[in-house]
Amino acid sequence: MAVCVAVIAKENYPLYIRSVPTENELKFHYMVHTSLDVVDEKISAMGKALVDQRELYLGLLYPTEDYKVYGYVTNSKVKFVMVVDSSNTALRDNEIRSMFRKLHNSYTDVMCNPFYTPGDRIQSRAFDGMVTSMMIQVC
Amino acid sequence: MEAAASGGCGSGPPLLLSEGEQQCYSELFARCAGAAGGGPGSGPPEAARAAPGASTAASGPVADLFRASQLPAETLHQITELCGAKRVGYFGPTQFYVALKLIAAAQSGLPVRIESIKCELPLPRFMMSKTDAEIRFGNMAELHGTKVQIPYLITEKNTFKRMDDEDKQQETQSPTMSPLASPPSSPPHYQRVPLSHGYSKLRKSTEQMHPAPYEARQPLVQPEGPSLGGPGAKPLRHQASLIRSFSVERELQDNNSSYPDEPWRITEEQREYYVNQFRSLQPDPSSFISGSVAKNFFTKSKLSIPELSYIWELSDADCDGALSLPEFCAAFHLIVARKNGYPLPESLPPTLQPEYLQAAFPKPKWECALFDSYSESVPANQQPRDLNRMEKLSIKDMADFPVPTQDVTGDDKQALKSATDEALPKDMEDSATPKDSNSLKARPRSRSYSSTSIEEAMKRGEDPPTPPPRPQKTHSRASSLDLNKVFQPSVPASKSGLLPPPPALPPRPCPSQSEQASEAELHPQLNRAPSQAAESSPAKKDIPYSQPPSKPIRRKFRPENQATESQEPTTAVGGPASVATVKPHPTVQKQSSKQKKAIQTAIRKNKEANAVLARLNSELQQQLKEVHQERIALENQLEQLRPVTVL
């Protein structure tokens, strides 16, 4: 369902970004980049919010005519950004949340790997597989 | 074509090959020829050795192939002779085909004769043996795994499609194993896709490996078009499922073939080695190795970090950032496989999964004992004794440990008394380092880290209270300063601390000597006693406040000062007392060494001695009273007599 999934590090550089229609990758990268501003704005607005799932999930960041961008931030300020196709029958919020939850779980599994240093690009095949499963539903 | 080529075989009759045989043999021939590095018909290099102009099968692969047929060597010799290869000196197509036919005949039980090949025969079966593969590529012990090649063989799905078709078509063929020209273990750069294809078909005894796909092998090098319609799972099951997306099929095949030998199977000795390595990192086999410890260990293997990361991902099944024993074995095995050139699988092979490993290799009995002793619930009292057992067992097993543990042994040689003691610090060292990193995962090991002797450990286990309060107790329990003075020099000395009280004990039977033992207790009584005897009281009062060493001296003076009635007890007391004074002096010298342990042993001894002395005390008090009464009586008599004399 997702068209593009990106994991952004705390310092706002991408740890992982992948989009399904590979021809428009640059466009997706740009969209993710612009969404980072929105994410930061929402984070600052939260202030000293309690850390629970609701606050982690940022919801719809901004819609374009073709796509909607959703955001999610972890406790360590690692951001997940997901771009979904607007033409998809509106995905319920819960579904987006569950997708982010799966992303978060896979991300923590990647973190558990001692050979992964935080800040590296994510090259875990399990993570890839999970993202593929999320994205391949589009086709 | 093969039938026609058979005419080239001089002595043999025309070779009639069925279509299936034709395909099979041609593929085999191509493989044997191709294994040398060239393609059929392209003049393999080995052809230079043989008669020029004819494509030949290189003798090496051919020999391996023949051996793979599992016929006795003598039979194979016969076959090679008969087929004419020896005569012509090389394995031409005709010779090769004749040989194959003869092999089929031999496997069917027919005598190896030219006549046998005239009849219809099943296709020859070739079993790839371990030794062949090892000779070939010198790789790991388990080499039969088709699965090994599967992942990196980015084998086109279309090839399987084709094989499916052919498989379905020719199911009536007798089951054959695909002939092997090369073992599976070759790393990517070693293999050509055709070979790997061929080999990948093998090894499922229930499968009907059809040779027909082989002829399609060559053209399959280029990716081709059939759609990925998803061939039925069933036919795939009959073939090795080689494609990534079909890796799931592997489990089904395993069920069919009940885990054939493969590179992902851990042998017993490998397993032992892994377990030993695990123990070197984490002494408790039921606990975990933390991520950082494992990382340091595995980076020693010199594999690249992404590969190690991937191996970790595969083996840490529960994704907890730590490796349990089966996970560790799986990871280690994957690393070993990778280092030997095997590509890493897409997912953890079933034989490496933790449940399988735990089931397949139940922990040996001695390890069970270790588990018992390592159990968290072991109370402190039992733990030292369990430690003893553990240490004794683990010593035998740690004999083969690699260098790191031996170094640790060398480092920890402080005050070691026995082999078991050596094991204790060694293990403590081992457990100390991972203990730090295992703070979350490892079960706490509450072993004492400072024990130097088993006896000490046991005693310490028995007496949980800390030593420091005890000396105070002794001090506080002392009824007088003299007691402290008596026992304090002996307290630090472990053995010598025992001395002063024991000398007190033996003299117990003798009242005079026992008096000396309880001389400290005598003082209060003596203090009271002087009330009856005025003369001796001043002297006696002085004595309690003086030190025991000086006491005998005063005591010795006493006979001079006092009357005879006190002489007997005092001299008797003074004599042995002087002996006792000598003894504390040497103990003072030993005081500096081994204070702590000595203090504790001495404390216990002192307790016992105290009990004994308390008894002595009561007895002696009674005796003292009697003696005093006698003295009083004598003095009265004297006074009665004196006025008589004076007057």
From TrEMBL, chain A:
Record's GO cellular component terms: cytosol; endoplasmic reticulum; Golgi apparatus; perinuclear region of cytoplasm; TRAPP complex
Protein origin, superkingdom: Eukaryota
Provenance organism: Phocoena sinus
GO biological process: endoplasmic reticulum to Golgi vesicle-mediated transport
Keyword Transport: yes
Record's subcellular location: Cytoplasm, Perinuclear region; Endoplasmic reticulum; Golgi apparatus
Signal peptide: none
Pfam short name (any one): Sedlin_N
Primary location class: cytoplasm
UniProt xrefs under CDD domains: TRAPPC2L
UniProt protein name: Trafficking protein particle complex subunit 2-like protein
Keyword annotations from UniProtKB, A to Z: Cytoplasm, Endoplasmic reticulum, ER-Golgi transport, Golgi apparatus, Transport
Family in the record: Belongs to the TRAPP small subunits family. Sedlin subfamily.
Automatic annotation (TrEMBL), chain B:
Ranges annotated as biased composition (Pro residues): 499-510
Region (Disordered): 163-194, 400-599
Limits of the EF-hand domain: 303-338
GO MF, one example: calcium ion binding
Keyword Repeat: yes
UniProt superkingdom: Eukaryota
Composition-biased stretches (Polar residues): 561-570
Gene Ontology biological-process annotations: endocytosis; endosomal transport
Coiled coil (UniProt feature): 599-640
Domain EH: 21-122, 270-355
Pfam families in the cross-refs: EH
UniProt feature, compositional bias: Basic and acidic residues: 410-433
Keywords annotated in UniProt: Calcium, Coiled coil, Metal-binding, Phosphoprotein, Repeat
GO terms for cellular component: cytosol; plasma membrane
InterPro entries: EF-hand-dom_pair, EF_Hand_1_Ca_BS, EF_hand_dom, EH_dom
Record protein name field: RALBP1 associated Eps domain containing 2
Gene expressing this chain: REPS2
